[in-house]
Design the sequence.
């Protein structure tokens, strides 16, 4: 059952992975006029209407342009991207479809040009999911005031207190709250500097919309997210830095130097052997038959299915068994696996699960996003098999049990104990980042 009757969504930076488009437009627009982009410019205009942003830009840089002319230029620069290349954030479409199917009322509250809104919705196949689309031009002011959110609620016939707003910008989060609405903050790299304040202001926060599907009603009638689903939000900064690392991005583009991938394969092969040992330790420490079965099944999948992908690529590189056996783990590899194995000796099952969780979860998340972001480049991509394996439903299902298992394990823990589990999880996400960086730089040690 939905905790809310109405759901109101921002577009840029919330449903759409599009803020980079506007970053580039700002750079190109000002460069044409011989002006370097000031570091505070984006934050200054981010919650304004396009009309107000144009007026501000003209005044700040003493431009001869008219407001209408400048707005038209911005719109023309963005038209192709919104009609063809801008994609949705991970799991957003699935979440919208599930909400619509459940009978919830859906609305958009955006500062986007109306002429861009239709094409980008059609481009992503979601134009038929919303009951109302509201623009700040229509409400008469930017998102630093709540008017556009109130207008959206009015159009879908839901009182503000029964609405949940999804936003990525601090000013918009604050104004939606001032309207009496609950707010779910959505992480976007462009708002990274405000993320801690955004989280503190919003009712809760997510990194992607898979997390949003776990919003539940607690016994007091409020809203909460499961502990396990909330871990990604706690590690949001390094999680996103991992996805944007050159190693990961060049995998998606198919441009990654093959010698770097070869180095990664050999190091990851060694890693997986140690990783499998952690699952064995967790099985030994498990108190229930179900948990033991899950850990041993996961260990088998690591040693069989997952390592098969590595063996396939290594065979393509002509790597012999002797070469594999002669490889030494890098310092970063050894530190990561030693950290996990230490929990096998000193920790409980919750600590072990928190330590191994990020490896599977980041791989599934990154691969799915790469598959969507670089869909037009996948055919002919040397790394297609790697991407499709980790983006597959089968791989996701292989660790789906982690979520409920960890939630059950921490259910009777104190806040201090839960925080320790969170720290272990974040530490492993950081190690994942270091592993990508190690592979990209082909580094064996410091």
Sequence:
């Amino acid at each position: 059952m939905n905790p809310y009757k109405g759901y109101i969504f921002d577009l840029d930076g919330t449903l759409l992975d599009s803020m980079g488009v506007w970053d580039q437009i700002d750079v190109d627009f000002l460069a044409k006029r011989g002006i370097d982009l000031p570091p505070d410019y984006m934050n200054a205009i981010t919650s304004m209407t396009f009309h107000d942003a144009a007026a501000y830009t003209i005044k700040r840089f003493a431009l001869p342009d008219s407001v209408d002319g400048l707005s038209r230029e911005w719109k023309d620069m963005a038209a192709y991207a919104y009609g063809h290349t801008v994609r949705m954030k991970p799991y957003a479409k699935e979440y919208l479809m599930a909400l619509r199917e459940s009978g919830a009322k859906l609305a958009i509250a955006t500062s986007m040009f109306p002429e861009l809104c239709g094409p980008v919705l059609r481009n992503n196949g979601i134009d038929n999911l919303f009951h109302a689309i509201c623009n700040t031009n229509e409400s008469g002011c930017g998102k630093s005031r709540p008017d556009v959110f109130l207008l959206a609620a009015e159009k879908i016939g839901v009182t503000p207190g029964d609405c949940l707003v999804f936003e990525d910008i601090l000013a918009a989060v604050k104004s939606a709250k001032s309207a009496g609405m609950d707010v779910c903050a959505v992480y976007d790299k462009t708002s990274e500097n405000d993320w801690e304040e955004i989280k503190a202001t919003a009712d809760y926060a997510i990194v992607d919309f898979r997390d949003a599907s776990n919003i539940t009603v607690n016994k007091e009638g409020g809203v909460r997210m499961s502990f396990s689903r909330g871990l990604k939000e706690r590690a949001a900064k390094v999680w996103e830095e991992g996805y944007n690392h050159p190693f990961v991005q060049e995998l998606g583009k198919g441009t990654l130097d093959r010698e770097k991938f070869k180095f990664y394969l050999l190091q990851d092969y060694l890693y997986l052997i140690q990783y499998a040992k952690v699952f064995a330790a967790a099985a030994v420490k498990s108190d229930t038959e179900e948990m033991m079965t899950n850990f041993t099944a996961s260990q088998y999948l690591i040693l069989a299915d997952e390592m098969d992908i590595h063996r396939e690529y290594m065979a393509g590189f002509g790597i012999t068994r002797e070469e594999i056996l002669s490889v030494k783990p890098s310092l970063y590899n050894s530190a990561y696996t030693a950290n996990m194995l230490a929990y096998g000796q000193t920790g409980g099952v919750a600590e072990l699960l928190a330590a191994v969780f990020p490896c599977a979860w980041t791989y599934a998340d990154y691969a799915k996003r790469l598959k969507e972001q670089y869909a037009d480049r996948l055919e002919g991509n040397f790394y297609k098999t790697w991407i499709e394996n980790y983006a597959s439903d089968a791989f996701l299902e292989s660790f789906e049990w982690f979520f409920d298992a960890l939630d059950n394990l921490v259910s009777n823990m104190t806040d201090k104990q839960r925080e320790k589990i969170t720290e272990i999880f974040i530490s492993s996400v950081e190690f994942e980042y270091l592993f990508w960086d190690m592979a990209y730089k082909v580094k064996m040690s410091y």
In short: The chain has a mean pLDDT of 88. The chain has two domains: 1-225, 239-441.
